[in-house]
Amino acid sequence: MVEVIRSRLLDGVPHGFLGRRGGVSEGMCWGLNVGHGSGDDPALIAENRRRAVEAVAPGARLATVYQVHSSDAVIVGEPWGDDERPRADALVTDRPGVALGILTADCTPVLLADREAGVVGAAHAGWKGAFGGVLASTVEAMETLGAQRGRIVAAVGPTIGRKSYEVDADFFQRFLAADDDNDLFFTDGRAGHYRFDLEGYVLARLAAAGVKRIEALGLDTYSDEDRFYSYRRATHRGESNYGRQISIIAVPA
Protein backbone atom coordinates (compact mmCIF):
# COMPACT_ATOMS: atom_id res chain seq x y z
CA MET A 1 0.00 0.00 0.00
CA VAL A 2 1.20 3.50 -0.83
CA GLU A 3 2.19 5.39 2.31
CA VAL A 4 0.73 8.91 2.31
CA ILE A 5 2.04 11.39 4.89
CA ARG A 6 -0.34 14.27 5.51
CA SER A 7 -0.33 17.63 7.27
CA ARG A 8 -2.98 18.68 9.77
CA LEU A 9 -2.84 22.21 8.39
CA LEU A 10 -3.99 20.92 5.01
CA ASP A 11 -6.94 18.88 6.29
CA GLY A 12 -9.71 18.94 3.70
CA VAL A 13 -7.29 19.57 0.82
CA PRO A 14 -6.24 16.50 -1.20
CA HIS A 15 -2.51 16.27 -0.54
CA GLY A 16 0.25 13.95 0.49
CA PHE A 17 3.99 13.59 0.90
CA LEU A 18 4.93 10.18 -0.46
CA GLY A 19 8.08 8.16 0.08
CA ARG A 20 9.18 4.87 -1.41
CA ARG A 21 6.61 2.54 0.16
CA GLY A 22 3.95 1.00 -2.03
CA GLY A 23 5.62 1.07 -5.44
CA VAL A 24 6.71 -1.48 -8.02
CA SER A 25 10.31 -0.48 -8.81
CA GLU A 26 13.15 -2.83 -7.91
CA GLY A 27 16.90 -2.68 -7.32
CA MET A 28 18.49 0.58 -6.11
CA CYS A 29 15.26 2.44 -6.88
CA TRP A 30 13.00 -0.08 -5.19
CA GLY A 31 9.61 1.23 -4.19
CA LEU A 32 7.53 4.17 -5.43
CA ASN A 33 10.17 5.77 -7.66
CA VAL A 34 8.62 8.47 -9.90
CA GLY A 35 11.79 10.00 -11.36
CA HIS A 36 12.30 9.81 -15.11
CA GLY A 37 15.96 10.70 -14.60
CA SER A 38 16.62 7.73 -12.35
CA GLY A 39 17.35 5.21 -15.08
CA ASP A 40 14.40 3.10 -13.93
CA ASP A 41 12.05 1.28 -16.31
CA PRO A 42 9.62 3.92 -17.72
CA ALA A 43 6.71 1.47 -17.39
CA LEU A 44 7.40 1.06 -13.67
CA ILE A 45 7.70 4.83 -13.21
CA ALA A 46 4.35 5.30 -14.96
CA GLU A 47 2.70 2.76 -12.69
CA ASN A 48 4.24 4.38 -9.61
CA ARG A 49 2.94 7.78 -10.70
CA ARG A 50 -0.51 6.34 -11.28
CA ARG A 51 -0.50 4.80 -7.80
CA ALA A 52 0.69 8.06 -6.25
CA VAL A 53 -2.08 10.14 -7.80
CA GLU A 54 -4.76 7.59 -6.94
CA ALA A 55 -3.58 7.54 -3.32
CA VAL A 56 -3.89 11.33 -2.99
CA ALA A 57 -6.37 12.66 -5.55
CA PRO A 58 -8.16 9.83 -7.34
CA GLY A 59 -9.07 10.69 -10.91
CA ALA A 60 -6.91 13.82 -11.06
CA ARG A 61 -4.41 14.50 -13.85
CA LEU A 62 -0.80 14.97 -12.74
CA ALA A 63 1.22 18.05 -13.65
CA THR A 64 4.95 18.21 -12.96
CA VAL A 65 7.79 20.47 -14.14
CA TYR A 66 11.37 20.00 -15.31
CA GLN A 67 13.02 20.98 -12.04
CA VAL A 68 16.20 23.06 -12.33
CA HIS A 69 16.71 24.54 -8.82
CA SER A 70 15.33 27.90 -9.93
CA SER A 71 13.04 30.48 -8.36
CA ASP A 72 10.44 30.12 -11.12
CA ALA A 73 6.79 29.22 -10.50
CA VAL A 74 4.29 28.39 -13.23
CA ILE A 75 0.50 28.50 -13.34
CA VAL A 76 -1.13 25.26 -14.46
CA GLY A 77 -4.35 25.35 -16.44
CA GLU A 78 -4.15 22.00 -18.20
CA PRO A 79 -1.44 19.40 -17.51
CA TRP A 80 1.17 19.09 -20.25
CA GLY A 81 2.96 16.03 -21.55
CA ASP A 82 6.24 14.89 -20.04
CA ASP A 83 8.14 16.18 -23.07
CA GLU A 84 6.51 19.61 -22.74
CA ARG A 85 7.24 20.29 -19.08
CA PRO A 86 8.38 23.88 -18.45
CA ARG A 87 11.65 24.45 -16.60
CA ALA A 88 10.55 25.66 -13.18
CA ASP A 89 10.48 24.61 -9.55
CA ALA A 90 6.97 25.43 -8.41
CA LEU A 91 3.43 25.06 -9.72
CA VAL A 92 0.13 26.66 -8.73
CA THR A 93 -3.44 26.06 -9.90
CA ASP A 94 -7.08 26.83 -9.20
CA ARG A 95 -8.37 24.04 -11.44
CA PRO A 96 -10.14 21.08 -9.82
CA GLY A 97 -8.96 17.78 -11.21
CA VAL A 98 -5.33 18.88 -11.59
CA ALA A 99 -2.78 17.35 -9.21
CA LEU A 100 0.44 19.30 -8.76
CA GLY A 101 3.51 17.13 -8.20
CA ILE A 102 7.00 17.96 -6.97
CA LEU A 103 9.85 15.42 -7.01
CA THR A 104 12.54 15.32 -4.34
CA ALA A 105 15.39 13.20 -3.01
CA ASP A 106 16.68 15.38 -0.10
CA CYS A 107 15.44 18.79 -1.27
CA THR A 108 12.39 20.17 0.51
CA PRO A 109 8.86 19.71 -0.85
CA VAL A 110 6.42 22.43 0.20
CA LEU A 111 2.65 22.20 -0.33
CA LEU A 112 0.50 25.33 0.04
CA ALA A 113 -3.21 26.15 -0.05
CA ASP A 114 -5.67 29.00 0.28
CA ARG A 115 -8.89 27.08 0.86
CA GLU A 116 -11.14 30.13 0.56
CA ALA A 117 -9.76 31.05 -2.86
CA GLY A 118 -9.52 27.45 -4.05
CA VAL A 119 -5.85 27.86 -4.95
CA VAL A 120 -3.03 25.41 -4.24
CA GLY A 121 0.71 25.35 -4.84
CA ALA A 122 3.67 22.98 -4.71
CA ALA A 123 7.32 24.01 -4.52
CA HIS A 124 10.66 22.23 -4.85
CA ALA A 125 12.87 24.06 -2.37
CA GLY A 126 16.42 22.80 -2.39
CA TRP A 127 18.97 25.19 -0.95
CA LYS A 128 19.41 26.96 -4.31
CA GLY A 129 15.70 27.46 -4.86
CA ALA A 130 14.99 28.50 -1.29
CA PHE A 131 17.95 30.90 -1.34
CA GLY A 132 16.91 32.27 -4.73
CA GLY A 133 13.29 32.96 -3.78
CA VAL A 134 11.20 30.06 -5.09
CA LEU A 135 8.86 30.22 -2.09
CA ALA A 136 8.12 33.92 -2.54
CA SER A 137 7.53 33.23 -6.25
CA THR A 138 5.05 30.49 -5.37
CA VAL A 139 3.09 32.77 -3.06
CA GLU A 140 3.07 35.53 -5.69
CA ALA A 141 1.82 33.13 -8.36
CA MET A 142 -0.96 31.95 -6.05
CA GLU A 143 -1.97 35.58 -5.53
CA THR A 144 -2.44 36.05 -9.26
CA LEU A 145 -5.17 33.39 -9.04
CA GLY A 146 -6.92 35.12 -6.16
CA ALA A 147 -5.15 33.74 -3.10
CA GLN A 148 -4.22 36.01 -0.21
CA ARG A 149 -0.91 35.35 1.50
CA GLY A 150 -2.43 35.92 4.91
CA ARG A 151 -4.77 32.97 4.29
CA ILE A 152 -2.21 30.62 2.78
CA VAL A 153 -1.15 27.64 4.88
CA ALA A 154 1.93 25.57 4.08
CA ALA A 155 3.32 22.17 4.97
CA VAL A 156 7.01 21.31 4.73
CA GLY A 157 7.61 17.67 3.92
CA PRO A 158 10.44 15.13 4.23
CA THR A 159 13.85 16.67 3.58
CA ILE A 160 17.45 16.10 4.53
CA GLY A 161 17.95 16.85 8.23
CA ARG A 162 20.57 19.10 9.79
CA LYS A 163 22.47 16.14 11.28
CA SER A 164 22.78 14.64 7.79
CA TYR A 165 23.62 17.78 5.82
CA GLU A 166 27.28 18.76 6.04
CA VAL A 167 28.42 21.76 3.97
CA ASP A 168 31.73 23.56 3.49
CA ALA A 169 32.84 27.03 4.55
CA ASP A 170 32.09 28.60 1.16
CA PHE A 171 28.49 27.44 1.43
CA PHE A 172 28.22 28.94 4.92
CA GLN A 173 29.76 32.25 3.81
CA ARG A 174 27.32 32.54 0.88
CA PHE A 175 24.38 32.48 3.29
CA LEU A 176 26.07 34.76 5.81
CA ALA A 177 26.81 37.33 3.10
CA ALA A 178 23.11 37.44 2.22
CA ASP A 179 21.95 37.89 5.82
CA ASP A 180 23.85 37.76 9.10
CA ASP A 181 20.84 36.08 10.70
CA ASN A 182 21.35 33.03 8.49
CA ASP A 183 23.98 32.00 11.03
CA LEU A 184 21.03 30.54 12.96
CA PHE A 185 20.70 27.71 10.44
CA PHE A 186 24.25 26.40 10.86
CA THR A 187 26.06 24.47 13.56
CA ASP A 188 29.71 23.43 13.64
CA GLY A 189 30.72 20.18 11.97
CA ARG A 190 34.17 18.74 11.39
CA ALA A 191 37.01 21.18 10.76
CA GLY A 192 36.05 23.71 8.09
CA HIS A 193 32.53 22.36 7.75
CA TYR A 194 29.05 23.03 9.10
CA ARG A 195 25.69 21.32 9.47
CA PHE A 196 22.92 23.11 7.60
CA ASP A 197 19.29 23.18 8.72
CA LEU A 198 17.53 23.24 5.35
CA GLU A 199 14.09 22.67 6.86
CA GLY A 200 14.55 25.57 9.27
CA TYR A 201 15.74 27.82 6.45
CA VAL A 202 12.69 26.93 4.34
CA LEU A 203 10.41 27.74 7.27
CA ALA A 204 12.07 31.14 7.59
CA ARG A 205 11.71 31.86 3.87
CA LEU A 206 8.02 30.96 3.99
CA ALA A 207 7.52 33.31 6.94
CA ALA A 208 9.40 36.05 5.10
CA ALA A 209 7.01 35.54 2.16
CA GLY A 210 4.07 36.29 4.45
CA VAL A 211 2.88 32.74 5.18
CA LYS A 212 1.80 32.72 8.81
CA ARG A 213 0.63 29.15 9.38
CA ILE A 214 3.26 26.53 8.59
CA GLU A 215 3.72 22.91 9.64
CA ALA A 216 7.07 21.13 9.40
CA LEU A 217 6.94 17.33 9.45
CA GLY A 218 10.51 16.95 10.71
CA LEU A 219 11.32 13.85 8.62
CA ASP A 220 14.92 13.22 7.50
CA THR A 221 15.20 11.64 4.06
CA TYR A 222 18.87 10.72 4.49
CA SER A 223 18.59 8.71 7.69
CA ASP A 224 15.35 6.83 6.92
CA GLU A 225 16.24 4.55 4.02
CA ASP A 226 13.17 2.37 4.46
CA ARG A 227 10.83 5.31 3.76
CA PHE A 228 12.65 7.83 1.56
CA TYR A 229 15.04 8.24 -1.36
CA SER A 230 18.15 10.35 -0.75
CA TYR A 231 20.56 11.76 -3.32
CA ARG A 232 23.23 12.39 -0.71
CA ARG A 233 22.97 8.91 0.79
CA ALA A 234 23.33 7.36 -2.67
CA THR A 235 26.32 9.63 -3.39
CA HIS A 236 28.07 8.72 -0.13
CA ARG A 237 27.65 5.04 -0.97
CA GLY A 238 28.94 5.46 -4.50
CA GLU A 239 25.67 4.19 -5.97
CA SER A 240 25.12 4.87 -9.65
CA ASN A 241 21.56 6.14 -9.27
CA TYR A 242 18.76 6.94 -6.87
CA GLY A 243 14.97 7.20 -6.86
CA ARG A 244 12.76 10.26 -6.44
CA GLN A 245 9.70 10.61 -4.25
CA ILE A 246 6.72 12.81 -5.01
CA SER A 247 4.58 15.28 -3.07
CA ILE A 248 1.12 16.04 -4.46
CA ILE A 249 -1.64 18.59 -3.84
CA ALA A 250 -4.93 19.29 -5.62
CA VAL A 251 -7.82 21.75 -5.36
CA PRO A 252 -10.69 20.26 -3.35
CA ALA A 253 -13.58 19.16 -5.57
Gist of the model:
With 253 residues, this protein is an alpha+beta fold. It has helices spanning 42-56, 127-132, 134-144, 169-178, 198-208, 231-237, and strands at residues 4-5, 15-18, 61-63, 73-75, 90-93, 98-104, 108-114, 119-125, 153-156, 166-168, 186-188, 193-196, 213-216, 245-250. 24% of the residues lie in helices and 24% in strands.
What percentage of the residues does DSSP assign to strands (E)? 15-25%
Q: Please give the CATH class.
A: Alpha Beta
Question: Which spans of ≥5 residues are poorly predicted at pLDDT below 50?
Answer: none
Structural class determined from secondary elements: alpha+beta
CATH homologous superfamily - what is it?
A: CNF1/YfiH-like putative cysteine hydrolases
The radius of gyration over CA amounts to: 17 Å
Total strands: 14
Sheet with the most strands: spatial strand order: 4-5-8-7-9-13
The coarse overall form would be globular
* Largest β-sheet summary: 6 strands, mixed
CATH architecture descriptor text: 4-Layer Sandwich
Distance between the termini: 24 Å
Classify the fold: give the CATH topology: CNF1/YfiH-like putative cysteine hydrolases
